[in-house]
Write a structure and sequence with these properties.
Helices cover 27% and strands 28% of the residues. The protein contains two helices and eleven strands. It has two domains: 33 residues; 92 residues, Tumour Suppressor Smad4 (Sandwich), CATH 2.60.200. The protein starts with a helix and ends with a strand. It is of the alpha+beta class and 154 residues long. A six-stranded antiparallel β-sheet has the order 2-1-11-10-7-8, with no helix packed on it. Strands 4-3-5-6-9 form a five-stranded mixed β-sheet, with no helix packed on it. Pfam families: FHA. Keywords: Phosphoprotein. It comes from Williamsia limnetica.
């Protein structure tokens, strides 16, 4: 009887060790992708796109609010910049106490859109990286302005 308990204890500890190693590797992987500003490809993208990220001809068409007070709000993108903030003349007027009057701006350059922080108090984040200069925004990558999260969609 003691032999079975000892073997089960050994197997349990081995299983816990492997789960801990797996969790550490996932954290390291997410930190690496956060530092590079890229996101890992999904299985679907790797299988159907040959490893290349999806790119829609002509770029994104909509700005979608995914989290925050204005969740599920959709703005059709044109050629004009999109101003984000609490000011009444903003394209997307945020009712968020963590957003500045003129918090951030999305600007179109060719087929790509770039986000730039306008000197906000709490900062603008592309995925998990703080935006300090104009940064290209890939499709479906979260941009956080206060408690509001937006994404560009085709």
């Amino acid at each position: 009887m003691q032999g079975i308990v000892l073997q089960l204890t050994r197997v349990g500890f081995l299983l816990l060790l492997w789960l801990m190693i797996w969790a550490v590797l996932r954290v390291i992987r997410s930190d690496v992708y956060a530092a590079t500003g890229q996101r890992p490809l999904t299985r679907y993208e790797r299988r159907n796109r040959g490893g290349a990220p999806a790119r829609v001809k002509g770029g994104p068409r909509y700005l979608i609010v995914t989290h925050g007070a204005l969740a599920n709000t959709r703005i059709t993108l044109g050629t004009q910049p999109v101003l984000l903030g609490r000011a009444d003349d903003s394209t997307l007027v945020l009712t968020d106490e963590y957003a500045s009057e003129r918090h951030a701006r999305l600007v179109r350059r060719g087929d790509d859109w770039y986000v730039e922080d306008l000197g906000s108090t709490n900062g603008t984040y592309l995925d998990r990286a703080k935006v300090t200069t104009a940064v290209r925004v890939p499709l479906a990558t979260p941009v956080r302005v206060g408690k509001t999260v937006i994404e560009l969609r085709p």
